[in-house]
């Protein structure tokens, strides 16, 4: 608990004047500071030496009142107008009587075009170093979005160009249009709010930031760092269509798609119905030709197969095979008969030879075979027997038993 807070109790509260004095004392400790901002309003009262300015932060909905001497304003920014960027040297002051805070400026410098371009270039290098311009993170918008979010000025030519050309290309396209200030001190806060609203809308598939051409000062809100970061953080793809082809605000580098003009954005966001119908017709024609060519080719193949003898006259193959089978049967019959005849001849010759060599043939000629009856041994010499031995005589017509009378 600080010393000042310790002096304030429910029993001994501070009067309003004491609180005002202490607030003024704390604010006075800040001292003189350099402040950068955009002039939202200038109030010059006739005959008064004091000029009142409303200084707004370009990237936020914040503003402060600035008081300065007419001579200071005429010396530093004689042609100052609303919407201009200024840098001023001022001291914060708290007015106890009204309970308000303001800045008292003793020097005002209007930011020229060169300084603005230098600031934009510094912001560009910063964002590029952080990867906000990386092409790999850019998303492709859908081929046919369900709903398109359009952020543009009220009743502007950019709005008319986008809506007219998009509906001419695809009549059923749906838009959610949010009109904002596209230049001046309120432009950036309104642009940020519109982006947030559309990015939260689940039906919005793509967002278009559209504005017509203008000077560098007019397009300055679209090079604001806060707006660039908001576009980078959008989950919905963003198309930038700011100014003409030669205009390149920083939001063009951050957006997922850069369109050279609002009309170009309308052409990029939806397909052309007539072109798509023509492509479909061409595709159907190519498909029809391909199918017909395939059918014709297969028909030719079938005709070629059907024209082959095996299918055109299948009985020819059977007749051919039947002739071959008949020829083989006749050949087999001839071969078998020949083999049987030759075998019969060989058998006849063999039988004849056997008969010629057979002892039976010899016996038929009147000869006999003398054998011992006990062991069947053939006798060839008379000395092999003695008188009284029994013999067996084999004749052509049978056998006889005999006894040796004398030798």
Concise account of the structure shown:
The protein has 407 residues and is of the alpha/beta class.
Q: What attributes characterize this protein structure?
A:
407 residues; alpha/beta; Rossmann fold; 4 domains; 13 helices; 44% helix; disordered N terminus
Structure description:
The protein is rod-shaped and about 200 Å long. It has 13 helices and 13 strands. It has 407 residues and is α/β, with parallel strands linked by helices. It folds into four domains: 3-111, Nucleic acid-binding proteins (OB fold (Dihydrolipoamide Acetyltransferase, E2P), Beta Barrel); 117-271, Rossmann fold, CATH 3.40.50; 273-323; 360-403, no CATH class. The chain has helices at residues 3-6, 16-28, 70-76, 113-129, 157-169, 187-200, 225-233, 250-254, 262-269, 273-306, 309-312, 314-357, 359-364, and strands at 33-44, 50-56, 63-69, 85-95, 100-110, 147-152, 175-179, 204-211, 238-242, 257-258, 369-371, 390-395, 398-403.
How many domain modules? 4
Using the 3D structure, state the CATH architecture of the largest domain: 3-Layer(aba) Sandwich
Strand content: 15-25%
Q: What is the CATH class of the largest domain?
A: Alpha Beta
What's the helical proportion of residues?
Answer: 40-55%
The fold-level CATH name of the largest domain is: Rossmann fold
- How many DSSP helices? 13
Q: Give the biggest sheet.
A: 5 strands, mixed, barrel
Shape: rod-shaped
Task: Determine the mean pLDDT.
Answer: 86
How far apart lie the N and C ends?
A: 178 Å
Give the ordered list of helices and strands.
Answer: HHEEEHEEHEHEHEHEHEHHHHHEEE
Count all strands and give the number: 13
